[in-house]
């Protein structure tokens, strides 16, 4: 058969295309990352040598698998998470200094724990310092493009719309919802204790999730938990599929292949979208509340977006808020109860404060603000067990931090756990539970307060931190005023790093009703 074109010409085109593709791959996967790394090497920054394409992935993987089973089954004597969860980073930091570079795949990353650079990084307001591109790609299937997963002017637009809805003034209006959600957990525990004769061994994790899910769903979206429950379950399953443990998330391009896991993730994505749009539809038909969902709806309407873009704006931001505020608060509450169970003196002390301030009433904002000991305990919990272990950014143009010229394309990691337990900053008891260090607030707690960052830093600092603190205080105050608790003998201490720092086997407490008012 005669080809309609010259076969030599065809072969030349194929040859040239292949050479072009190889050059492109070589430049973007090998030459460019090497060029970026060499710019920092010239400034004296070193780090573990990366292997071609895989970077330091194999070392990171090995470190994770060797540490995951090495934790004590006893309650912790100290809370040295940096050494347990991030030993490789500890080792690299000792070997290469407080600023070193490593690679995830071909992506060069600068790990920064040096106080002056962390300070500059945390006050930088440039829109060119955004969330890392590799992270946005990884989270896109889970979160689409909302406030958590966008950069530049798109992010600024999302933040402007959402921020006022989470100011303290608005949170005051959510107090009833927050206390009702907490009381429903207390009622369940009460019934369990009565049914089981006075003391009950409870795994608290799901209750904490129900609480924070209920609050987010009702306060921000006006729907009740039973409507949000399905969304939460699917998002949690989706989050699990997106976690580091899933190989598809570690190999570039793998998530586009129709593997079993990916197909399951796509199915869940569609279902979550349908459910959120269903809540939106009901909302349009029935209510004109001025809550977060209403703001998102109105802003989408005013933005002259196409119907598809409007849907995406709504669905993505709903998912972002659900995800940002759900697990983080639940996990913090879980760790806080574990620490109070382990430290009975602090449990008694905070309970005495709660009983004195509230006198048997449900706390209001004013009462919560008077609970100093409780606030100290929560800050200390977030110091030792910060749910978000790394604050990360990428330089989208050449930038300067301290003496460091950082080329465009470099990502930064600030290791929150490492900063939170640095003994130079926090003192010799850095790995111990000592809420007293927060007696003068977060500013007086250590030598360099900007190194305390459970809610992140700079313009992208957590939007929900006021809400989270009020939720945690309300829940702890109500639990402490009704129950006493200690760690269950079945509790196994095994903090693990999924997307967040979580108790691997959950937290079990021995819980009973409070009979007498304790003396301190
Ligand atoms: C104890 C609970 C929480 C913790 C520890 C936490 C922590 C964080 C952290 C570390 C960040 C990233 C900040 C950065 O990159 O500098 C963040 C971002 C965010 N959080 Fe939270 N968070 C909590 C609760 C909440 C709640 C309850 C909500 C909302 C209802 C929320 C909404 C957000 C949003 C929207 C962002 C993205 C901000 C942006 O990129 O502009 N968070 N959070």
Automatic annotation (TrEMBL):
Compartments where located: Membrane
Transmembrane segments: 9-27
CC cofactor: heme
Lipid bilayer topology: Single-pass membrane protein
Molecular function as annotated in GO: heme binding; iron ion binding; monooxygenase activity; oxidoreductase activity, acting on paired donors, with incorporation or reduction of molecular oxygen
GO cellular component: membrane
Source organism superkingdom: Eukaryota
Keywords from the named record: Heme, Iron, Membrane, Metal-binding, Monooxygenase, Oxidoreductase, Transmembrane, Transmembrane helix
Transcription in keyword set: no
Residues that coordinate or bind heme: 462
Family of the protein in this entry: Belongs to the cytochrome P450 family.
PANTHER family: CYTOCHROME P450 714C2 (PTHR24282:SF196), CYTOCHROME P450 FAMILY MEMBER (PTHR24282)
UniProt-recorded name of the protein: Cytochrome P450
Organism of origin: Psophocarpus tetragonolobus
Taxonomic placement: Eukaryota, Viridiplantae, Streptophyta, Embryophyta, Tracheophyta
